[in-house]
Amino acid sequence: MIDKNLVLETINMIKLHNLDIRTVTLAISLRDCISEDIETVCDNIYHKIVKCAKNLVEYAEDLENDYSIPIINKRVSVTPISIIGESCKNPDYVKIAKTLDRAAKAVGVNFIGGFSALVEKGFTKGDRLLIDSIPEALAKTERLCASVNLATSKAGINMDAVLKMAEIIKNSAELTQDKDGIGAAKLVCFCNSSSDNPFMAGAYCGYGEPECALNVGVSGPGVVRAAIEAMPENSNMSDLANRIKQISYKITTTGELIGRKLAEKLSVPFGVIDLSLAPTPAEGDSVAGIFQAMGLEHAGAHGTTAALAMLNDAVKKGGIMASSHVGGLSGAFIPVSEDAGMIEAASKGYLTFDKLEAMTSVCSVGLDMIAIPGDTPSSTIAGIIADEMAIGMINKKTTAVRVIPVVGKTVGDKVVYGGLLGEAPIMAVNSLSSEKFVSRGGRIPAPIHSLNN
User: What are the residue ranges of CATH 3.20.70.20 in the chain?
Assistant: First the structure.
């Protein structure tokens, strides 16, 4: 028997509360594309991506029509390109970047991720060359995303890489200043990066992943908010947590259904479902709105970190019951420019940079899509990155930094990117100098709890 109430509930989730499949991401291994000749590498990369992903968009759109569930983004992630490029006698990472972008355009995906390096313990020759090429690569492509892992709970924090990446972020913003530094918006620094993450800008196909796999990222902050608002006003915290778990279970079930069907059509393994509540600038599709439904006047009020901690935990508990293959980041994102409620809170001064940093100790990722003054020194950006890497390292969780130093703009101005990237006020950062500290270089050692073998 079909439960009409469940059918109506799902329809309302989609039509009224912005439930969607945020992304389907096809992870493709490029390990068999290596060659000493850069032209051969580029040809191998292009043809493999086109071969594997040629039907991704078409089949995803078919499922959208079959199930009336929106799939917002179709994406591809590949093996970290620092590994692939360093096989060449004369590596040209910008050339590879353009090849990836051309392949992404050929198959019709929104973004391609994996222009990446993992340098938590140090650099190889390929890592250095790729990192140096990031600003030019992002300036000369449209769909390419880049990421660099700078720290892990096992290895500690590579402070040489932290300082280097601060300079790369500045350069990426400067080379795309005619577009308000959008190059930096497609670049993320990680601690404990996840090799099966379907979300950009950090998606890549890890070395231990299969030849090809389909990973799914679900969303639904609007659904969670509506469910909380429908509860009695005297509901206690345990009641709220249980309701969030129930909703998360339903959202995850929907996402896994679509993911498995799409993987079957593509004849590839189903990888993981990422349970993250990923907001958009659309009205009602806001993580900040969930905080208000819980009883806070706005995001940024005292109690926001506690509310986020409960939300993140309940989402994971509910989702894990619905799927045996949960991965990626999973939890709740707090990107400033991509969440209408966060944009409002930051614009009104309710949400400060320091409060956002505190919230990252319990959220899915970290300091995400935050616009800062263009004249912010690279040493200050390095300090921001180091702080966030430390939060991830100590707490054994994934954290990240995606900040955008917008050339020519300062506190009081704003940037508008449109689409899912939204808009953001320029937020103030601490003016005290970090230069002597971050310039020491070396590695901040891993914490004692890393010795758990």
Answer: 21-191, 217-441
Report DSSP state, residue 429: -
User: Is the pTM higher than 0.90?
Assistant: yes
The helix/strand/coil state of 140 is coil
373 bridge partner residues: 406
254-277 in b/e form (b: 16+ CB < 10 A) is bbbbbbbbbbebbebebbbbbbbb
Q: Which positions ≥6 away from 232 have C-beta within 8 Å?
A: none
Q: Which residue in this structure is represented by tokens 């659904």?
A: 223
Contact 134, 144 (CB under 8 A): no
**pLDDT tens digits along 315-374:** 888 888 888 888 788 777 888 888 889 899 999 999 999 999 999 999 878 899 999 999
- pLDDT tens for residues 174-221? 999 999 999 999 999 999 999 999 998 899 999 889 999 999 988 888
21-191 fold: Anaerobic Ribonucleotide-triphosphate Reductase Large Chain (3.20.70)
Tokens 């995606």, located at residue: 402
Instruction: Please provide the average confidence, as pLDDT, over all residues in the chain.
Output: 91
DSSP SS3 for 147: strand
